[in-house]
Amino acid sequence: MTLQKSFSKRLGAATLLASVALAGCASTPEPIIGPASTQARADLGQAGYSYTRATTYMLRPSDKISVNVFREPDLSIENVRLGVDGAVSLPMLGTIPAAGMTAKQFEEDVSRRLLAAGLRSPMVSVNIAEYASHLVTVEGAVEEPGVFAFQPGARLSAAIAMAKGPTNVAKREQVAVFRESPEGIMIAKFDYEQVSQGTMLDPVLQPGDRVVMGTNGLSVFYQNLLQALPAFGVFGVAAVR
Question: Are 133 and 63 in contact (CB under 8 A)?
């Protein structure tokens, strides 16, 4: 009888703690109907972040391109990667700079170089095969932290979605984005709940961004406590993730 009472008390405590832990899990907020916020908040370090997607794309180190010279297969090349210095090696021309140019500008530059090298009326087309420079790191209280490739124009919400979203112990109002700038690493803060509602800027990502979802320390405490209880197996791991 004493053992039964003891087990019942532990089971009751585990049930209560599980309920408290699950009560702290935030649900998806109701979106606010109408235009989403596009204004950066300088007080949260968002001044350098933009809602607007770029209309042109400049080649960057690590991107892969294909260069086709019309009727000149020996001068054409597929899936060549820009080096860390932003240069690329092409047949007949050797290593030439490419980073910082649009695909169209690079076409024109290669055409001029081939003309100067003796090729008559060169016709060049350049296609971007892979935006390999576009990587974002997502860590903290997300389901699947990692480094993810993204398409130009993707937003902060997309980065969090690629990491399978916040965990139940996430502090969703505390999302830090670390970004390189000429002045060094800059940090901005975003509220994922407000971003989801459309009441806070959902900024366009930049290559090399690092996103950190904050953790609710109280929820972690309850999670650790539940794991230590003998009756925890009744609920399963998923209950407090």
Answer: yes
CATH number assigned to the domain covering 20-54+134-240: 3.10.560.10
- The alpha carbon of 10 is separated from its chain's Cα centroid by a whole number of angstroms, namely 42
Rounded to whole angstroms, what are the CA distances from 234 to 22, 30, 48, 224?
A: 15, 33, 49, 15
**Six-digit token string for 185:** 């690493």
Handedness of CA 53, 54, 56, 60 (dihedral sign): negative
- How far apart are the C-alpha atoms of 66 and 123, rounded to whole Å? 14
Cα–Cα distance, 52 to 107 (Å, whole number): 26
Do the beta carbons of residue 69 and residue 76 sit within 8 Å? yes
pTM of the prediction? Answer: 0.76
Q: Tell me the pLDDT tens digit for each residue of 18-45.
A: 444 444 445 667 787 889 999 999 999 9
211, 157 contact by CB (below 8 A): no
Contact 22, 239 (CB under 8 A): yes
Q: What is the CATH number of domain 64-130?
A: 3.30.1950.10
| CA angle 199–205–211, rounded 5-degree value | 80
